[in-house]
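Researcher: We plan to redesign the surface later, but first we want a full-length starting point. Tokens attached.
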């Protein structure tokens, strides 16, 4: 009996219509287009403006696009995982609502949160369910409404983040394609450098918290940047070495779109050319859990069966990792 691998057989994506450009941000905070682009690579980001809509709205639309594109019956899906740092509610699963709204009535569902590493960690979880042989179709969605936790008077964060969602379908593969290897890491000592203080079980969102703007994301940019550059590059180098991969054997680097300089540093560390690197941060900014699936959705037409892809991510917590993946289909 051949070994069962978990592979991606379909992708989808969704971003809101509203575009927040760097020029628009110039009217909100002390910044300018040249400064933002030179330090982040971001030119614009998408924002979900409508009241009462959250990450589930983004997730549902990304999932529906995937299902429609591949003519997949949602009732055949066994499991729905929503990777998100911005769930709709604290005590209700975003994944459960998403599954119901897309018609995945035979699936169970749950949320996952590892900040910007959520989707990469979700890929590991989804693949284990498939490799076990118990489930045949696992829908993994990365979705974040980052604008819900952004202070648009704080230029250190408001220039970076955008809203969006991406979805992938994992299924069994017996050709040796799909997930090959992974290295996943966490270090909880870094949690104070990138966080939203209130709203969890330690600190309520009360009047004092609101006065202090504790409901918004704050980061120590230099510390986060330093750790992201080192750790993403480190695990990517190790995954190549462990699998005896040479640079010319890597077709693509799909790195979390946090900052163009971090992406470049990771690519340079493993000696890849620009044409081997997936990039869309200029259009969407940092969409947290959605960056990697949105890359796959944007680059799907360029991917070929058998392509070697190195995934890499870094997020709050701290959390980070890398995965070696063989693409399984031609579009």
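Model: Full-length starting sequence:
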């Amino acid at each position: 009996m051949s070994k069962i691998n978990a592979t991606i057989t379909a992708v989808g994506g969704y971003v809101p219509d509203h575009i927040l450009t760097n020029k628009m941000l110039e009217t909100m905070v002390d910044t300018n287009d040249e400064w933002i682009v030179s330090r982040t690579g971001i030119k614009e980001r998408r924002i979900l403006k409508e009241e009462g809509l959250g990450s589930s709205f983004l997730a549902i639309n990304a999932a529906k696009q995937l299902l429609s594109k591949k003519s997949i019956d949602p009732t055949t899906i066994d499991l729905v995982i929503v990777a998100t740092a911005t769930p709709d509610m604290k005590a209700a699963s975003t994944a459960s609502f998403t599954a119901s709204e897309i018609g995945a009535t035979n699936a169970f569902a749950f949320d996952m949160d590892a900040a910007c590493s959520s989707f990469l960690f979700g890929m590991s979880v989804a693949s284990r369910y498939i490799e076990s042989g118990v489930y045949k179709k696992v829908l993994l969605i990365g979705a974040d409404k980052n604008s819900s936790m952004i202070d648009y008077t704080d230029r250190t964060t408001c220039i970076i983040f955008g809203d969006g969602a991406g979805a992938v379908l994992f299924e069994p593969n017996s050709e040796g394609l799909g997930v090959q290897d992974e290295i996943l890491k966490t270090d909880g000592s870094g949690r104070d450098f990138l966080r939203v203080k209130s709203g969890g079980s330690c600190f309520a969102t009360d009047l004092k918290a609101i006065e202090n703007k504790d409901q918004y994301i704050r980061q120590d940019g230099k510390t986060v940047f330093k750790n992201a550059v080192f750790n993403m590059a480190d695990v990517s180098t190790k995954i190549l070495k462990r699998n005896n991969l040479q640079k010319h054997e890597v077709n693509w680097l799909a790195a979390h779109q946090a900052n163009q300089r971090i992406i470049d540093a990771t690519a340079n560390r493993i000696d890849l050319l620009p044409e081997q690197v997936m990039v869309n941060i200029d259009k969407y900014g940092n969409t947290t859990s959605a960056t990697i699936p949105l890359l796959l959705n944007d680059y799907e037409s360029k991917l070929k069966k058998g392509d070697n892809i190195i995934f890499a991510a870094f997020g709050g917590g701290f959390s980070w990792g890398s995965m070696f993946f063989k693409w399984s289909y031609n579009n």
